[in-house]
Design a protein that fits this description.
By secondary structure, the chain is an alpha/beta fold. The protein contains 9 helices and 17 strands. It folds into 2 domains: 139 residues, FAD/NAD(P)-binding domain (3-Layer(bba) Sandwich); 138 residues, 2-Layer Sandwich (D-Amino Acid Oxidase, Chain A, domain 2). The strands form 3 sheets. The chain has an 8-stranded mixed β-sheet, sandwiched between helices.
């Protein structure tokens, strides 16, 4: 029996990978159900390794390229790619983004409009990352929990793990050396007059924005990443900048209804890359931060390599 502390994104993905390899797994989580306390509920759910290469290691592409197919076995995945645009005054940002990334093709103004008619005539050029995709994080967490149980795993909601456990996936609560909180802020909007079908990234030096459609005129927007341990709701200033960026993308967002605003403390190491390491004798997966849904499957496979069929003596597995 393999025991896991934490049934958030990392814990559930590791549990499913272990179950697929024939292990018996029990997870413990003090929350009441999937996603209730997981910071992953505030994520965009973008499976975008080629876009992420703009500010991440090349290994992110190698490890994240298989994530779309992995997730498609668990939860619905929208495979419509990512569209990257910039306001006319920030076209230099678009060119910089193109130089720092791969896996894209340039778009003319007409091609941007053909991809997303709602944005026709609004952007003179863009980049299409056709192989990227996105999912709904909250549904994905629920579907993960269902799949774990289907495979014979046990999830003890409302219970804290009794130490020691075989695997710690408790995020910030793990208190690992070098782990810090990076605050992410987001809003969920309902804009009945906007029809956008794929993830859109709006480049702006002060407030880059990503917008992810959830269907039915509902969109998740995010962009802020703040070094902070505060769990308070988003400040008026940061929220107004976020909403202003959405308005820049499409003016109809000025009439959108704000369904939810939220902030989550995401666990990160100094290089913003995840780690598998041993701490006080326990194997830990942590630091998923901005690449959570993208890299969780690959990192879970590495965890399973260490835990199945037997525990190893390795002290650390760097990214």
């Amino acid at each position: 029996m393999i025991t896991i502390a934490g049934a958030g994104l990392a814990g559930l993905v590791c549990a499913l990978e272990l179950l697929r390899r024939g292990a018996q797994v029990t997870l413990y989580d003090p929350s009441g159900g999937p996603g209730e306390a997981s910071v992953a509920r505030f994520a965009g759910g973008m499976l975008a390794p080629w876009c992420e290469c703009e500010s991440a290691e090349d290994a992110v592409v190698a490890l994240g390229a298989t994530a779309v197919d992995w997730w498609a076995r668990v939860t619905p995945v929208v495979r419509r790619g990512t569209l990257v645009v910039a306001p006319p005054r920030d076209r230099a940002e678009l060119r910089r983004f193109a130089r720092r990334t791969t896996g894209h093709r340039p778009l003319s103004e007409g091609e941007v409009g053909a991809m997303e008619p709602a944005l026709a005539g609004r952007f003179a050029e863009g980049l299409a990352f056709d192989r990227e995709a996105h999912l709904d994080p909250r549904r994905a967490l629920r579907d993960l929990a269902i799949e774990v149980r289907k495979m014979g795993g046990t999830i003890r909601w409302g219970e804290r793990a009794t130490r020691p456990v075989d695997l710690d996936c408790t995020g910030i609560a793990a208190g690992l050396p070098g782990l810090r909180p990076v605050r992410g802020e987001m809003a969920i909007l309902h804009a009945a007059d906007v029809t956008i079908t794929r993830t859109v990234r709006l480049l702006h030096p002060r407030m880059p924005l990503y917008l992810v459609p959830r269907g039915g005129g509902v969109y998740m927007i995010g962009g802020t990443m703040i070094e902070s341990s505060s769990e308070r709701p988003p400040a008026v200033r940061s929220l107004s900048e976020l909403l202003s960026a959405a308005y820049t993308l499409h003016p109809a967002f000025a009439e959108a209804s704000v369904m939810e605003i939220g902030a989550g403390l995401r666990p990160a190491f100094a290089d913003n890359l995840p780690r598998i390491l041993r701490h006080d004798g326990t194997l830990c997966l942590n630091g998923l931060y901005r690449h959570g849904f993208l890299l969780a499957p690959a990192m879970a496979a590495r965890v399973a390599d260490q835990l199945v069929p037997e525990m190893t003596n390795e002290n650390i597995c760097e990214f």
